[in-house]
Structure formats: C-alpha cells, structure tokens
Amino acid sequence: MAVQYKPTDKLSFVIANDYRLLQVMSRFGISFGFGEKTIQDVCRQCGVDTDTFLTVINYVKDGAEDRLQKVEHVSVKSLLGYLRKTHVYFLEYQLPTMRRHLLSSIDCSVKNEIAFIVLKFFDEYVDEVRKHMEYEENKVFTYVEKLLEGGAMSIEGMHTLSYHHESVDGKLNELKNLFMQYYPQKENNNELNSVVIDIYQTAEDLSIHCLVEDNIFIPAVKKLEHLNRQRRAVDEISGNETEPMAGDEQLSEREKEIVICVAKGMANKEIAEALCLSVNTVTTHRRNIARKLQIHSSAGITIYAIVNKLVTLDEVNV
Ligand SMILES: [Fe+2]
Ligand SMILES: [Fe+2]
To answer: Which pTM does this prediction carry?
Structure first.
C-alpha cells in the first residue's frame, strides 16, 4: 500500500514530493510561507480541518483511483469550501486562460474552418462545465449547507450529483484528439504544443475534482444525512423541538394534501374518500412521502406539517 501522509509530516516535504498538491493546498486556503511547519500546524493556523486536508491529498497524490474513500473524519464543511474554491479556479481562471492560449495558438482567419470548430467545441465544453458547476453550487451545495445547519434531508441532492460527471470528463479528451489528429502542422508548434499539454493537465485536474466529489464528498454527505436522520429520530422520540425542515419543496401538491390529512389524524381509507382516490394510491403516496422526507411515522409527519405551516396546531390530531 502506498505511503500515506500523516499530520506530523512537514508540508514542505509533501509539496516537494508532488508539486501538483500545491493546487490542493491553495484550494483549501493555505498559502505559501509555511516554512518547516507540519501539516497539522499549518492547517490549524489556516483554520483548515487537518483530517479533511489529509484525506484529499492522500487520495489525489496517487492519481485518485475511482474507489470510495474512508470518510469518518472528513469535515463536510471544510470539503465544501475546498470544492467551491476549485470551481472558482476552473471557471474564473483556468478555462478563460486556456481560451486565450487557444486563440493565440490557432489561426482564426476565416478560411481556417478547423480552428473555428476547435474554438466552438471548446466554448461548448466550457458551457457544460459551467452549467454543471452552477448546478452543484445552486442545488447540491445549498442542500448540503442546510444539512450542516441540521435541516432535513432529501436523498435527491446527493442522488443526482454523481450522474453528471461523464459530460465534464469526456469532452476535453476529444478536444486533445481533435488537435493531434486533424490540426494542420506549422513550422513552429511550440505554442500549440503548450496548449495541448494545458488541455491534458486541465482534463486530469477536472477528472480528479469529479473523483473527489464522487468518492469523498458524496459519501461524507451521506454520512451526515445519516447522522441528522438519527438525531431527528431521537428528537422525535424524546419530544424535543426540531428545526424547520427543508424537504417540503420535494413534495407534490397531492402529497402535501395527504400530509395535511395525516396530520389531522385521518386513516388511509378516510383520506382516499376525501381526495377521491383509491386506498392503494394513498398508500403509494404515503410511501413516497416517507421516502422523500425520511419520516416514517404519523407523529413525524404531523410535526413536519406543523413546522412547515401546512396545518395549525388546532387542526392536528394529538
Ligand atoms: Fe464540482
Ligand atoms: Fe461535479
């Protein structure tokens, strides 16, 4: 098994072994000037969770195999900050810089159709990456922030994240091939070579970013969901007040109607009659509600309905 870095290793030693880890360091918000300090000292000084930093560098240093990592000691908050900074790096620095290099290395005169196609291809690719990262920022990361505040969980945020990575991963490889196989050679190819190398490095960096999300972030968030679920169940049993839940936007209008009926103490047969549905349909809705909210008892549904203002306290059956 490959050597794993420890909290007591010097950060300078880690960077000397693999300069690419400088990127990881900077995305965690650690800057130069760490001298002879150990990883744990630098992390403490910069407010970075040491275990999370170590989990990421130990994963990335050997090229990030596509395999789930141990996440018991990972701080989701710290990792979220790291992923956000990585998005900013790609969208605001690396991809625009690559476009500038591309523009200066290819001949964009009107007659050069391949140059035009390459540029178009690149722009479409950046657009996909941007959409993907915006989706993560707006949907997934917002959801995770709510989880960190102790809010309710829906499995959808985590469920969909991993399914979007193929499009982010594959296209840069196609662009490299497009260059190498079809782009006309010039006498001096230094600039073009440098762009192709840049594409290789960016493709690798992006692929590692996706793997960190798939194999560290998602399992760590699932663990957090599990902990919140357990805590909420304990709260329910002990009658403690729970914080407002964030899952109601996941329910359809029909499901909300059923939640209201359950909170009022109606049985499935009564709900079916009141809403002109079959009992089977009501049962299916209730199963979906339980899955979406991760609440399986009528008492839990009643609490959910109250805190989300679907019913008033006077209406419920307690
Ligand atoms: Fe991402
Ligand atoms: Fe992603």
So the answer is: 0.69
